[in-house]
Model the fold of this input.
Amino acid sequence: MGESKQVAIPRVLVVDDDPDMRQMLTQFLRQNGTIALPAATGAEVRKCLADGRIDLILLDVMLGDESGLAICDELRRAHEVPIIMVSALSADHQRMAGYEVGADDYIAKPFNPDLLLARVKAVLSRARRSSSLTHRRSTKAYAFAGWSYNAKRDEVLSPQGVQVALSRRETALLKALLANPHIPLTREEIAAALDVTGETAQSGEALGRGIDVLVGRLRSKIEANPKDPQILRTERGVGYVFATDVSEQDA
Done:
């Protein structure tokens, strides 16, 4: 008789400076299978992350005098925890601003709580699958255009031997491209490879812009001149192509 697999209850950090909203969201998430923890400031977010495991952060864009976007940007430089931005501003440029600083998803107020719960579950599921896939595929090292990516150590080195930090989403994009060199990929194909199921509620145009932003961020890391990319090139009328040879070996 096999051992039963225990699944940890997800720990969600609810970050909002409005005490009523913070309490409502925390209580709702606790009633729906998560351990929800409240926070009102960037300092409280950092303390919660230092104190223990956090599986997802619900982060309001406006936190009094603090910017949720700035906090997201800071967190993304040091942590891989998934982040869903929450905002009363629903315009596409606001959504893109969230993706530019590394948010995994974006939901506008007012929202249906069941929709929020579905997005939370989708992002958590995506993060678990990503971790599982990374574990199963963590034995390869890739070389391209003088660069190297060691999946076992999750380490990217420039041609000069300098380690370059990539976010979780940037790494996922790089992995998808490394698996498909010289093959033009549409934005929809890239989105599917990244498993961005939680974003399919967006229009195709908005989702495409999200991929464009992510491509721009990766280019800023791996291209000598991001404005004239030679590795990750635009394929007119299609999408993008990883225009370089890729070699792989066991790490």
User: Anything to note?
Assistant: The chain has two domains: 11-133, 138-250. Helices lie at 19-30, 42-51, 68-78, 92-100, 113-136, 168-178, 187-194, 204-222. Residues 1-6, 131-137, 196-201 have pLDDT under 50 and may be disordered. Residues 61 and 68 are 4 Å apart (CA to CA).
